[in-house]
Amino acid sequence: MRLKDFNPRNIRVEDQRGSGGGSRFPGGGGGKLGIVAIVVALAISYFTGIDVTQLLGGLQQAGEQTASTGSVQQAGTNAEESCNADALSRESCAALASLNETWEPLFTQAGVPFSQPKLVFYSQSGQSGCGAAQSAMGPFYCPSDRGIYIDTDFYREMEQRLGAGGDFARAYVMAHEYGHHVQALTGLADQVRRAQQRNPDAANQLQVRMELQADCYAGVWAAKNRNLIEPGDIEEGLNAAHQIGDDTLMRNAGRRPVEEAFTHGSSAQRKEWLRRGIETGNEDMCDTFSGMKQT
């Protein structure tokens, strides 16, 4: 994917890398996980939903958790330094800039207030407005501080261990997290959290619908930037969606897939909603909640 050049001054970036590791952050514990432990934790925690309140789209308790982000010691002095720390950092910043440029006009047209999310880089452990950030959690969005948190080492694990490599696959991850920001700005995230509290039996199903909608929003972003798409990109994204489906991850972990335990959706569902966003380029086609089973 040919992401355009960007002005670091136009995006919000924080850098917690090199700030002392886990001893500085509550619950950090040093974050010294071996490569196998990281992969297992990614498969079990990030994608299958164990301890979902601190993971991708973990909205049930995020608004209730409190943490002081002001105490974090930032290693990077500015966005330009942080974005240029390495190739993956720059790619992440470029994706963020593209996402901002794509979504802000849509909010303006709809008359809905827009604010940019911040991109927070951390290494092994860090702190978010939703509590401790750890590498094993993978990239996640924190609605409390409107931040997208990324340890870029995750992208290497995604390629080497999960079989989901490629620049568009990485962009899909960023765009998915940005989809959660869209849900926060529109108020949907709060509505879903309240619905989960009123009906705990439907909490898991609601969580899946949130994740699938974020996949669709990622596809909408890609569709609105077709001029940047290169041959093979769409296939990379769909492959990534397949590899991180709950059923595929459970099978790869030697477990029998159990739909009631899904928190992000099956491989087929994730591919379907990402594809729908790509094919329609219309955010209004991302209603994953219509026809939802009542429990």
Q: Which labels suit this protein?
A:
6 strands, alpha/beta, 295 residues, 4-stranded mixed sheet, two-stranded antiparallel sheet, globular
Task: Characterise this structure.
Helix content is 45%, strand content 8%. The protein is an alpha/beta fold and 295 residues long. It has one domain. The strands form 2 sheets. A 4-stranded mixed sheet has the order 1-2-6-5. A two-stranded antiparallel ribbon has the order 3-4. The relative contact order is 0.15. Residues 20-77 have low confidence and may be disordered.
Q: In angstroms, what separates the terminal alpha carbons? A: 42 Å
Weakly predicted, low-confidence segments: 20-77
Give the quaternary arrangement of the chains.
single chain
Main-sheet strand order equals 1-2-6-5
DSSP summary, beta strand count:
6
**Radius of gyration from the CA trace?**
18 Å
The helix-strand sequence is EHHHEEEEEHHHHHHH
* Overall average residue pLDDT: 79
Beta fraction: 5-15%
Shape: globular
Q: Could you say how many structural domains there are in total?
A: 1
